[in-house]
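Checklist before submission:
- one chain only
- standard amino acids only
- sequence pasted in full

Submission:
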Amino acid sequence: MALADSMKQHAWKPVALAIFIWLQYQLWFDDTGVLANYALSEQIENQSELNRANEARNQVLEEEIWAIKSGMDTIEAKARKELGMVKKDETFFIIVDPEKQNE
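Returned file contents:
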């Protein structure tokens, strides 16, 4: 009878151990656990950096749009620089450096 009483007294220990292991698994490895939280914080940090870069790029584009809308001088300068355009009655010269030509 003493053995049966002893078994009844300690029967809760395997159940408690199983519950403890299950809770530890959820704490560390579940979708809402510590490791998932760490991975999400890394993703948030990376996305924040991308957002800051995009905001800076958008600011530059907004300033460029404003400059183009404000006058023809900006359009003319952009056409000259990017498309190599010249005005009527202008002469365009290309100066070639002989030292750089051999490279």
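Reviewer check: The helical segments are 2-9, 12-29, 34-70, 72-83, 98-101.
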